[in-house]
TrEMBL record:
Coiled-coil boundaries: none
GO molecular function: rRNA binding; structural constituent of ribosome
HAMAP family documented for this protein: Ribosomal_uL6_B
Protein name, per record: Large ribosomal subunit protein uL6
InterPro entries: Ribosomal_uL6-like, Ribosomal_uL6-like_a/b-dom_sf, Ribosomal_uL6_a/b-dom, Ribosomal_uL6_bac-type, Ribosomal_uL6_CS
Gene label: rplF
Domain Large ribosomal subunit protein uL6 alpha-beta per the UniProt entry, residue ranges: 11-82, 91-164
Family assignment from sequence similarity: Belongs to the universal ribosomal protein uL6 family.
Length: 179
């Protein structure tokens, strides 16, 4: 039995959920998300709760059960509360700014790097060394944050680069002098 799959998903006020076969559509104050689930699971809605059950007891159906429940729960959380990733810039002269909706990064290259946000994503730059990626789709927020981090990943000797807020950077020891 899937411990995650067994838990029902509570639908908060202001969120509408529609199920048509394997297609799930969730609409809320932040936006609308749609997903087609695998045929190994079935979705039912009753009394403000969404329950996902496997069609049979095969290993494939049990594997998709918890995954499908997590995906639908992330959709419900996203359209009601939204998701946020926090990135930090570490390095002398490294800074971020927002020009219109674009994020402009100055991270040691000969040119500034501009990142255009996809639909449903918003950048927030409270100060030049912190960037917040906000959105209602968890996968897109994570992908955009990873793209920003990939512009200048943290290096292990001085720790310079772009990293997530709580990311632990494993540091290496530099060369020692000759004796």
């Amino acid at each position: 039995m899937s411990r995650i799959g067994k838990m029902p998903i509570m639908v908060p006020a202001g969120v509408e959920v529609a199920v048509e076969g394997q297609h799930v559509r969730v609409k809320g104050p932040k936006g609308t998300l749609e997903r087609t689930l695998r045929p190994n699971v079935q979705v039912s809605i009753a009394e403000g709760r969404i329950e996902i059950l496997p069609v049979d007891e095969s290993g494939e159906a049990r594997a998709q059960w918890g995954l499908s429940r997590s995906l639908v729960a992330n959709m419900v959380d996203g359209v009601s509360k939204g998701f946020r990733r926090h990135l930090e810039l570490a390095g002398v002269g490294y800074r971020a700014s927002k020009q219109g909706s674009k994020l402009v990064l100055t991270v040691g290259y000969s040119h500034p790097v501009e990142i255009e946000p996809p639909e449903g994503i918003d950048f927030e730059v409270p100060n030049p060394t912190n960037v917040f990626v906000n959105g209602y789709d968890k996968e897109t927020v994570g992908a955009v944050a990873a793209k920003i981090r990939g512009v200048r990943p943290p290096e292990p000797y001085k720790g310079k680069g772009i990293h997530y807020k709580d990311e632990k950077i494993i540091r290496k020891v530099g060369k020692t002098g000759k004796k």
